[in-house]
Amino acid sequence: MSKRHDSTTRRTPENGGSTSGGIAALRRLALSSAVFAASAAVRGASRFLLIPLLVRYLSQAQYGLLGTLNSVAGLLTMCLTLGLDEAVAREFFDYRDRSGALRSYLTTILLYLGGSSSLVLLLAVAGVPLIARWLLPGSAATIVQFFAVVLGMAALSSFLSVLGVLLRVRRRAVAFGLSQIALAGLLVGLTAVALMGFRWQVAGVMLAQVTSIGLVVAVLVGLFIYEDTPLGDRLRRLSALPMRTCDSRQEAVAPDGERRSPLFDRAKLRKALSYGLPLLPYAAANWCTSASDRLILTGLRTMEEVGVYNLGYSLAMVMNVIVVTPINFAYAPHFYEAASRDPLARKQFAFNAELYVAVVGSICLIGMLFSGEFVSIIAPASYSGAQPVIAICVLAFYFLGIYLVVSLPLFFMKRTKPIACISIAGAVLNILANLLFVPIIGIVGAALTTLLAYVLMAVLAGVLARRVYPIPYRWSHLWGIPAAVAGFGFAFQAGALVSKVLLVLGFVAAAGVLTLRLKHKLPPGTTVSP
Description:
Layout: H1 20-57, H2 60-81, H3 84-95, H4 99-135, H5 138-169, H6 173-197, H7 201-228, H8 230-239, H9 266-276, H10 280-300, H11 303-341, H12 345-369, H13 371-378, H14 387-406, H15 408-412, H16 416-468, H17 475-491, H18 497-519
């Protein structure tokens, strides 16, 4: 292979290289993150568009019920996915140099999910409503029918999760972004029709969600069939289009002597499940951490308070959707590939983490300081109690992002048990603290427990990951900047608008100076090109 096409060649000062490759890798990573963030911004904008619509056409109690149903849907999605999305995210790189094996692996995963999702959808559409009408009268039957819709949404969401991971690991950021934009547009449009046109309230919102996800899944499945199955090969030959492979750098067919892999391979499915199933406690614990607050609030406080909390949590979630998640989507595949091919990557990872806490910390500070203004613009005065919830939950999602960054070595080394233990510890703390604080300080207590859980998870992940894959972080930077964000955010939250703006500008300037100082810490070699 020529040097021009050899992406694994490491250039150092001794052979004429420089740090420019590392900077170039960061630029490519930033570009992928920007594409993910742009699509996430559209989804975030759709959330903003939906919030005034939801609070106008739904009562506070109905809004609280909607939040609870979505939490249950998240739990069911996790159970149906069985950790296969995480398996694809990691094991894709084990097969990527063998195109036939990669195709077999991906079709195996999707055929399995397709079969299980089809059975669940059949149960949701036909079985559950029928049982509800026979056995349960009145409102109880209505609740069960809500559950049927939630079950259908979970089945489709599990499929969408794996398809989305597949686009990300292939670095098809644009295709992923378009799918997310389409999902957001469908959701806003169908929800508006359901509420404004048919006045279907909570049921209409849930049906809009199911329909939106189903349409996007159908398109992505069609794309996968066209590009990665024998049927697609035949269609491309008939249309005289160039062959596309599982990996654009591989041949369309397996090289001579390589055993042709079956479309459905039980051994590959067992391997994927052996990686994914141990992560079910991790996923369940993460669900508890993110959703138990609303469930406990539902049991201990009024549905009106749950509605106010749901608004604050939803607005804070924009931080997660637009900033934390896009960066993780782009960074995780880069981390796995660089860690497996470049011995100098650890210093690069340390720089990346310190850059992350500085940049994302600035965004977090803005969200905390201007949380009151956000509520006053978005919602009626009756929702003013959501302001402290926003500030606390924005900070919580900042620490969630730190956890996602420092826990990547555990995923790379396939240490699923420590990952599960960290998430279980966070969930236990979250549930116990909710039971303690919610009866006393209500929705503020629920927000604080979310923050405490994510702080604990970030600290534990940093400590345990260091044992299996040491990265030379400068801990004073990695934890000092988040501490400063928390201190300034809470101390100046009630300050004048001018003081808030000046504080943000000062913090951003300090973060920029820190980034410039960190730049010379890049390793002398280059990381693998993402």
